Amino acid sequence: MQLSTKHLLGIKDLTPSDISLILSTATQFKEVLQRSVKKVPSLRDVTIVNLFYENSTRTRISFELAEKRLGADAINFSASASSVSKGETLLDTVNNILSMKVDMVVMRHSASGAPHFLAKHIPAAIINAGDGINEHPTQALLDALSIQERLGSLEGKKVVLVGDIMHSRVALSNIYLLNKMGAQVMVAGPPTLIPKYIAEALHVKVEYNIKKALEWCDVANVLRIQLERQNQVLFSSLREYNLAYGVTRKLLDGLKKEIVIMHPGPINRGVEITSDVADSKQSVILNQVENGVAIRMAVIYLLASKI
Ligand code: CP
Predict the structure, then answer these.
(1) Ligand 1, atom 4: closest residue by C-alpha
(2) What is the Cα–Cα distance from 246 to 95, expressed in whole angstroms?
(3) How far apart are the first and last CA of the chain?
(4) Of 124, 3, 145, residue with least CA distance to 62
(5) Edge-to-edge, what's the strand order for the sheet holding 125-131?
(6) 252-273 pLDDT tens trace
(7) CA angle (274, 277, 278) in 5-degree steps
(8) pLDDT tens figures, 200-215
(9) Residue 52's closest CA among 9, 89, 27, 81?
(10) Residue 108 CA, ligand 1 centroid: distance in Å
(11) CA of 256 to the centre of ligand 1 (A)
């Protein structure tokens, strides 16, 4: 089987079959990653550049690891340490890199649509590693794999995305994916951090009361407050936010069931989530990170077959 697209720009462009194919391929790669020899050198002739115009820990390391596990040649590019600081444009930078015969570009950029722009102008396969407040498709895929592993499937499961929905590319990619795969989706947080028409536009439930949201769900995916993407004051203080919307042990103990706790990272401990929740056995936060390598291997492997 093959993916229906030659790039991974967003979950919006994928079919449910594409998503199932990526998840099942990642599950096979997870088995490989448990072995003592963790390499499947199937992409020996493929050269991939990781083009990061914005900071990253998890995404960047896991893409590089995935490329190495597949035997591809991986090159890392950091905008802050490049000729971008001398005024070089994005297209000039990429065309210079491509002239060195690169097959695939993994790109993170603070501007929404930057990977889509590249896909229109260069012949390489593009993987979006997070663009502004638009999408973070591989994060949604690894989140889906983590839910599937814990609950058996996505179909019919109730997932709430908690917090700064307005500025979160993780939220948008998760909403697209969960809707396509038959899960029920809710967003919860302060009204100032939830887009006004999201219920109609993206077919999600909206809840402003965190206790009610947690009572409804099977899974809570807790998002970071993206202060770096906010240009106005949207809540009074981080302490006030924590008191009203922080996911705490007391809140979870008040529920009649045990829900799964997720967080894409980086965590602001004591703001959107307390340490005792983040580090509890209900939390799959480190499983999400582990799944990131297998998901990225699957995406790279499947797109490489279309080069
Ligand atoms: N979840 C995530 O994208 O983390 P990084 O910003 O560290 O890559």
Answers:
(1) 58
(2) 45
(3) 15
(4) 145
(5) 73-78, 47-52, 104-109, 125-131
(6) 999 999 999 999 999 999 999 9
(7) 85
(8) 999 999 999 999 999 9
(9) 81
(10) 10
(11) 32
